[in-house]
What does this fold into?
Amino acid sequence: MVDEVYVHTGEAALFLKEFLLGSGFDAAELEGVSTHSLKSTILSYVAKGNYLPLPDRRILGHHLEPGDNSAVTYSRDELSRLMVKVEVMLQDIRNSKFKPDDSRVRRIAEQTAEVIEEVQVSESEPDSDDCSVADLDRSDMGLEPERTAFDDLTIDNACNSLVHIHSGVLHVLNVGGASFVCGRKRTKNYCELERTSVPTDIPVCIQCAKSLP
It folds into this structure.
């Protein structure tokens, strides 16, 4: 397996140099060029756009914590789900939804505006629980408002769901995955459940739960 990785990396480096030579660079300029710069760029972009959390960025960069080696090895294809996120990022770049070369201030402003817009949409819906403190806090009487538990979802719904990275609320995806059952659009502010998370502690969108068959 290790030998295969090195072979593939070497082939990629040769392809990169051939591409740059064909683009007008001199061979002498490419002496120190390798694929490591491509790796750095991808890791930088997914961090700038908040597409992957730190543990996933470590895996994408082939830097594993000692205790994660066995889990990643036996999963056989851990990188597939990360490649999906990378492809989503590349599509956003093509569609000018994400501009990694923008200044830090501009990126923060755009991402903040998107979060504020989602919060405003949530607050405009009376029954929405996204970013709503009222649906997450217990009252002084010890009574809990209407709330859907993770255990109430079917296995299919639980597997076909994403969590909002800021509110922590879980939403169930529609068929096709472009939007959620509650009507909200799927954006880069939603991610898969962390492996270390406790599902029973995660609040579920009430609108999603009410709309499920």
